[in-house]
Amino acid sequence: MGDELFYRDGGQLVPTAFALSIGAEVHKILSSMNGILHQGEFQPSDFSGEISLSMRESTFELFAGKIADISQQLSGSRGIKVYAKEQASFETLIRGQVDFMVLPHDISQPPTRSRDLMWKQILADEMVCLMNQEHPLANNPLRIDDYLSCRHIGILDKDLSEPYFEQNLTQQHGSRNVVISVADFGAAAVMCHQSDYLLTCSKKWAEQSLQAKGLVRKPLPFEYGKVGYSLVWNQASLNDPALHWLYQQWVD
User: Which residues form the HTH lysR-type domain (predicted)?
Assistant: First the structure.
């Protein structure tokens, strides 16, 4: 059609704005074609393609065993690429540049309201408060007044709306004093070890993470709804037998 799709920048080809704008529709077409051309039972050992995932580093820490198992089953593939969520966000899912995303969030709020993206909870969780062993509250029950009087570490996420727990806390009791925000639970836990700041995070991650070892864990002193980890994917992706197989590995 004469439309420029890529331009050269040094040693690489970069997609134009037009190419990015049609990416989501092209992804649907190619996924549908894959479903037609590769009908029948999928054999992981025969797969020679590449699969890509997006998640936070702390999420990878929880699901590393499952990812390793999937990788071993795809013995003939070119491999699995795991991108940081900051690098590959919801837009990359819509365009078909990433196959699946795994992330923690409020179950009451879908990770995204895009009609092209689907989401399914794969792990139920709770929220906890972490603090240094030398923190003044370490040996006492955590009350709401204590929680609000302390300084907090926040977690950055430009894609998700304000968490329900934050909204409910503000409405019912008051706002947290967030003095520093970082990209991930791991970085926040390191800061917890070095300060008197509080970290509100995933209980399952806190139980398993090496970075959270040695920190005191306490239940939150307020209602925060339901939380968990969800798988997010482009609806068109499941037309591809390989991606439908991968989806089943996560939800079964």
Answer: 1-16
CA distance 183 to 225: 23
Q: Could you state, in order of their start, the residue ranges of all structural domains in the chain? A: 28-40+49-124+229-251, 126-225
Taken in order 144, 148, 150, 154, the sign of the CA dihedral is positive
Helix, coil or strand: residue 44? helix
Query: What fold, for 28-40+49-124+229-251?
Result: D-Maltodextrin-Binding Protein; domain 2 (3.40.190)
Instruction: Point out which residues pair with 191 in neighbouring strands.
Output: none
Q: Can you give the pLDDT at residue 31?
A: 60
C-alpha closest to that of 232 among 247, 220, 217, 212:
247
Say if residue 111's pLDDT is above 90: no
CB neighbour class for 13 (10 Å; exposed up to 12, middle 13-18, buried from 19): exposed
Q: CA of 165: how far to CAs of 59, 81, 106, 186, 223, in Å?
A: 19, 32, 8, 20, 7
Residues of the chain by 3-state class (helix, strand, coil), percent to 5:
35, 25, 35
β-bridge partners, 180: 153
Element (H, E) at 245: helix 241-251
Instruction: Return the structure tokens found at 33.
Output: 């074609």
CB 100 within 8 A of CB 246: yes
| CATH number for the segment(s) 126-225 | 3.40.190.10
Q: 3-state DSSP call for residue 118? A: strand
Q: What is the DSSP string of 210-223?
A: STTTT-EEEE-SS-
Decide the pairing of beta strands 177-182 and 198-202: unpaired
